[in-house]
Specification:
Chain A is α/β, with parallel strands linked by helices. Chain A is built from 15 helices and 16 strands. Classes of the chains: A alpha/beta (452), B alpha+beta (729).
Chain lengths: 452, 729
């Protein structure tokens, strides 16, 4: 870091330029020239073969902390209180079993890489969410940006669609977790605000108010800009409402962008293939967005905080269901439909898919037939752009309590995700007071066996 | 590590950071080991006072390692050595005593593991030749006893506050421990020094020399045994003295703030104009924009004390009562209970009466703490229905009345403050006897279990004294809380009042007072608290004092102090709260918004029920009051909010309505200048500048008559979305 330059930039215009040069971009603004330079710098500094293989990323976030023991790391030989109420099934990979509710995933295991030795010390939802979604343990001095925020910040906009979309919402990590971290507000995820699985689904407030037209909307924007420009007092001149307004205007005025959200354009067959639950239709919408150049989509799926009654919540969906429609069967359908669909459209190689939550669950069942928070070991799954499928990385011990080998931290995972997305983990971004911060932590190491 | 069923929100960031961050590993050099404890032959190594600091310094007992609630690798230590008995048990007796080898002290696991002489999951923590390892070996050699005949009386750190003149300057940190037997040791090498922001201050773990890399004020926390002490390091923002606009001194606030700015060499903005001051203080005291007549009167008045008179008038207005009732209701998290709104209405009515009457805050709190009876009639009794459970009540009370997060002391002694599990469960024990159904009453039974002893916790005033197990101890608690000598109570509330007026608390977050989270201006906090106590705990008095300071009346930032976010060199621009913004929009448009089934004309700040249906307030990001409203960020901002303002009904419906202010002006054929002037005065409390007038007359000239009304609507919409309107600045 360059403390002298940093400290004097407020009094000296030259040093502000210096800070631009040092880091490649700042929160104050970023021109195309800077961007191109950044790209070159990034690509030149890394030798990873999979660097930049993925153009976009779909994060399927299992909010609440999915049980590793019922999904990607079953323990069929462990005692009953560890094994839990659900069984396991074989996959085409020798010796690799998955939870019984994941038959489709098991059949397509050649597409998936599973990490069974994720480990973190943070067993509280918000802390865990921050750590998994940013690669940094949370601290009081700085809110770190999520992968989606970083990606949308450094990528050139490919369309007027927001670069970081959350479906149906981004209500994760606590009320103060914006997802944008120290980056400008434009990096914050855009929540579509409706559940695509509902028949009346539409993006909230995307259609013009009756009596309004685009010409008037343009005029309103012009008036706001004029007022902010002419006002001598008032708020900060740097972060004005203008940027939100511009983005909103661009989105509203683009018929093509709006069409991206129209799930009714999909055939009933396709819609059914993804499953009727929220996670399925959210994944379908994610595919439509990625197809149109949105770099990052977070599919936020709730309900994985299963402190009680695992069997109903994870498998059945409701008590006594004949065919399981719980969390895991819905995930199984959505995930495999998404991967197959992307593959058919020749998009799988450039789309990274990550499935994870903030931690795993306790190895022993609790008194309510549920499992509590357990971050010491848990699993995650990756597929698509640059990922070598058909493998299991790391393992947990016989009861799923601790990593047995190859412990991998959320920081390591973050560095790997950035690498796949073509962002050098060592890249420095700047907070709005000019502090350089690396996108991944200093101690993060890339999970090389994950890369194809 | 927290492994089970914690709530989803609101644990302290600070707590987390310290639970997970291992300290810098202790790579002790024997040359540095001026370690009287191990050098003196006759000295018997004392487990509690000599060994635990070694473990803490080496990072063994952090939350990420053996200090986790379930230990690590089958070995559990108490967090930062908070429970020496447990640690002694773990090291000496657990694992069949294999961790110490009395026959071959050098082969004790407690030595071999951290020096990585054998495989250790936590890696290399102690130099085999260093004084830490030596001390451990000596202790085992002497029989690994648990004797101690002294306790730490004082932990002195120097410097406590230091201003460095330039970047990359260094300062050597040092610490001394003095014990009850009169002995005193230099414990610098056993003290864990942690920079709050490691990107700003780098501390050499061997020499304890701190180097400051960034300008401004930085904190370093020094930890030794159970003592934690903050150190403040400053590097001024400029290497040269800056020229100040010397602001008039109006009261004690200005002295402290000016001193701090001079120390940090931050230049001060010129005072705010009358119009800016009028708008700012009206929003802060009444949550409302000033009326148009007030704007005009204030602009033309040349009365020398017009600001004082304005502040006095606002403080006595019914709008003040409404707004500050809402502010306090948010703090108290007043909301409907599952069994209906009666309790809510009674509680709110009581609170509003207190605010209107100017009841002392100490009286209010005494009433709350001692309340009982039918909650549908006795408003304050609903205080005991805010949260469910005695422990939760203890957490709520500590955050509200002490500004402290006692909750960290549930599972272990607070790692960053003085609070112990006895304090936490002792406070909860006081509330355990309170039955809080519809009727709140105190029973003879009711207890909470102390997790360490498994026995009922003894009622206790936090940090002070145990109370009698029998009887209702709320009175003892209430008199301790509201006593003038209470070190937390007055500070916690004046800090919140300061934050409401200034946009930032002297202590941030406002519910996280800790010795390790000192105020930016400690003297100011003391003086504000003293003034508050001396004047009968009057909220109006403190608000008035702040409003009349020249610190409050500063103008906007300029190029030279715009980086300042905590020292009040300029006014801090803040977003209007959802309720205030919604009301301000209604006032400018000239039409009320309907909230749920409330009568037309009900303002958002007057809503009794925070769950009253309102898409507007939801989109603007109101607080549900189910959790503390203090830490909730404005995550409802950004594109989602903008889309709603553009396409939702909140503005569109009323701007186009036939009976709004615009319609009335158009109906009397007001010309464009008049319309622009009036809306500017309403929304921004000022007349448009020449540049703005020119812009608008050009914009309106171009229009054709049919488009005129729409053009005005777009003007009003633009005004309501301008940065100057949506902020208090």
């Amino acid at each position: 870091m360059h403390p002298i330059e940093q400290a004097t930039r407020y009094t000296n215009d030259l040093s502000r330029r210096d800070s631009l040069r040092v880091g490649g971009l700042t929160a104050l603004g970023l021109g195309l020239g800077d961007m191109l330079r950044l790209r070159r710098v990034s690509a030149g500094e890394t030798t990873e073969p999979s660097f930049g293989r993925a153009k976009s990323c779909i994060l399927i976030w299992l909010d609440g902390g999915p049980s590793h023991l019922e999904t990607f790391d079953p323990k069929p030989d462990a005692p009953t209180e560890v094994r839990g109420p659900l069984g396991s099934i074989a996959t085409p990979l020798a010796g690799v079993r998955l939870g019984e509710c994941l038959p489709n995933t098991a059949a397509m295991i050649d597409k998936f890489a599973i990490i069974r030795s994720m480990t973190s010390p943070l067993g509280e939802h918000n802390f865990g969410t921050h750590y998994l979604m940013t690669g940094y343990k949370p601290t009081p001095v700085l809110e770190y940006p999520t992968f989606g925020a970083v990606l949308s910040h450094v990528r050139e906009a490919a369309s007027v669609l927001p670069p970081h979309v959350a479906v149906p919402d981004f209500r994760v990590g606590g009320a103060s977790f914006s997802g944008g971290g120290y980056l400008p507000r434009s990096a914050m995820p855009f929540a579509v605000g409706g559940d695509p699985a509902k028949p009346e689904f539409k993006v909230r407030d995307l259609d013009l108010y009756p009596g309004m037209d685009l010409e008037r909307l343009a005029r309103r924007r012009e008036f706001v800009q004029a007022m902010d420009r002419l006002s001598s007092s008032g708020g900060s001149p740097v972060v004005s409402s203008g940027s939100d307004l511009d983005r909103a205007y661009d989105l509203i005025s683009s018929a093509d962008a709006k069409r991206a959200f129209r799930l009714s354009d999909e055939s009933p067959h396709v819609r059914k293939r993804y499953g009727g639950k929220s996670i399925g239709q959210c994944c379908l919408l994610a595919r439509r967005l990625v197809e149109r150049g949105v770099p990052f989509v977070t599919v936020n799926n709730r309900g994985w905080d299963t402190h009680d009654d695992l069997k109903t919540r994870l498998k059945e969906g409701y008590t006594g269901a004949q065919v399981g429609v719980g969390l895991i069967p819905s995930l199984d359908l959505a995930l495999t439909a998404l991967v197959a669909d992307l593959h058919d459209r020749r998009l799988l190689d450039e789309t990274l898919i990550v499935v994870m939550g903030e931690f795993g669950r306790t190895p022993k069942l609790n008194a309510s037939a549920g499992r509590d928070h357990w971050p010491r070991v848990f699993s995650c799954l990756l597929a698509g752009g640059g990922v070598r499928g058909g493998q299991v990385i790391g393992s947990s011990d016989s009861v799923g309590e601790s990593p047995k080998d190859r412990p991998i931290t959320p920081s390591d995972l973050a560095a790997t995700i950035y690498t796949l997305l073509g962002i050098d983990p060592k890249l420095e971004l700047h907070t709005d007071d000019g502090r350089p911060v690396r996108v991944a932590t200093h101690d993060a190491t890339i999970i090389s066996e994950l890369l194809s | 590590m927290i492994t089970t069923t914690y709530g989803r929100y609101g644990l302290s960031w600070w707590m987390l950071m310290h639970l997970v961050s291992g300290s810098a590993y202790a790579d002790d050099r024997s040359s540095h080991a001026d370690d009287q404890a191990t050098l003196r032959q006759e000295y018997v190594v004392d487990f509690e006072n000599d060994i635990i600091p070694v473990l803490t310094k080496a990072g063994c007992n952090t939350g990420a390692c053996h200090g986790a609630a379930v230990g690590r690798g089958g070995f559990r230590l108490s967090l930062y050595g908070g429970d020496p008995e447990l640690d002694y048990q773990s090291i000496v007796f657990d694992l069949e005593g294999r961790r110490v080898n009395l026959a071959k002290p050098d082969d004790s696991l407690v030595v071999l593991k951290p020096t990585e002489s054998i495989s250790h999951g936590g890696g290399y923590r102690l130099d085999d030749d260093g004084s830490g390892a030596e001390r451990l070996r000596n202790w085992v050699r002497q029989g690994a006893t648990n004797q101690t005949n002294k306790h730490l009386r004082e932990f002195i750190v120097s410097p406590r506050r230091q201003t460095l003149q330039s970047l990359e300057s260094s300062v050597a940190l040092a610490s001394t421990a003095s014990f009850s037997d009169g002995s005193e040791f230099d414990v610098t090498q056993w003290t864990v020094f942690t920079a709050e922001d490691p990107g700003s201050v780098v501390i050499d773990p061997e020499t304890a020399v701190a180097t400051v890399l960034r300008r401004g004020r930085h904190l370093v926390i020094a930890r030794y045994l159970h003592h934690v002490v903050p150190i403040e390091l400053l590097v001024p923002w400029s290497d040269e003295n800056v020229s100040y606009v010397v602001a008039t001194r109006r009261n004690f606030i200005d002295d402290v703030v000016a001193d701090r700015l001079a120390q940090l060499r931050i230049p001060v903005s010129p005072p705010a104009t009358d119009a800016t001051f009028l708008r700012r203080v009206s929003l802060d005291l009444t949550g409302q924009l000033p009326a148009m007549e007030t704007v005009r009167e204030f602009a033309t008045s040349d009365h020398p004390s017009k600001r004082e008179k304005l502040v006095d008038r606002l403080l006595q207005s019914p709008e003040f009562t409404d707004y500050w009732t809402m502010q306090l209701a948010k703090l108290l998290r007043i909301r409907a209970t599952p069994d209906g709104r009666e309790g809510l209405l009674a509680y709110q009515a009581w609170l509003k009466q207190c605010v209107a009457d100017g009841t002392g805050y100490d009286d209010m709190v005494r009433t709350l703490l001692l309340a009982d009876g039918d909650t549908h009639v006795m408003g304050p009794a609903n205080f005991y229905r805010t949260v469910a459970g005695a422990r939760e009540q203890a957490e709520f009370v500590s955050e509200l009345l002490m500004g402290s997060r006692l909750r960290c002391a549930n599972c272990h002694n607070h790692p960053l403050d003085r609070w112990t599990q006895d304090d936490y469960h002792g406070l909860a024990a006081i509330f355990a006897k309170v039955q809080s159904g519809r009727v709140v009453s105190v029973t003879r039974r009711g207890e909470v279990t102390h997790p360490r002893t498994g026995e009922p916790a003894k009622p206790r005033i936090p940090g002070e004294a145990f109370l009698d197990v029998q009887g209702d101890q709320r009175a003892a608690l209430a008199s301790w809380v509201t006593d003038a000598s209470n070190p937390y109570f007055a500070k916690a509330i004046v800090n919140r009042l300061w934050k409401a007026m200034m946009g930032r608390g002297l202590v941030e977050p406002a519910d996280d007072f800790r010795s390790t989270n000192p105020a930016t201006h400690p003297e100011l906090l003391d003086q504000l608290a003293k003034d508050f106590i001396d004047h009968g705990y009057q909220i109006r008095r403190t608000l008035q004092t702040i409003a009349m300071s020249s610190t409050y009346a500063r103008g906007a930032p300029f190029d030279g102090n715009e980086f300042d976010v905590s020292f009040y060199s300029h006014a801090f621009s803040r977003s209007l709260s959802p309720e205030v913004l919604a009301d301000a929009m209604s006032d400018v448009i000239g039409l009320h918004e309907r909230y749920g089934d409330e009568p037309s004309g009900t303002r958002a700040v007057m809503l009794v029920d925070s769950a009253t249906a309102s898409e507007t307030l939801d989109v603007l990001g109101r607080c549900s009051r189910e959790e503390s409203c203090e830490s909730s960020g404005n995550s409802a901002g950004g594109l989602t909010r903008m889309l709603h303002l553009i396409n939702g009904p909140i503005l569109n419906q009323r701007i186009t309505a036939a009976n709004n202010r615009l319609s009335q002006l158009v109906a009397v054929n007001a010309n464009a200048d008049v319309i622009v002037d009036e809306f500017y005065e309403l929304a921004l409390s000022r007349k448009p500048s020449d540049g703005e007038r020119q812009y608008w007359s050009a914009a309106f000239e171009k229009s054709n008559p049919q488009d005129r009304r729409k053009l005005f609507e777009d003007f009003v919409w633009g005004l309501l979305n301008s940065q100057e309107f949506i902020t208090n600045h």
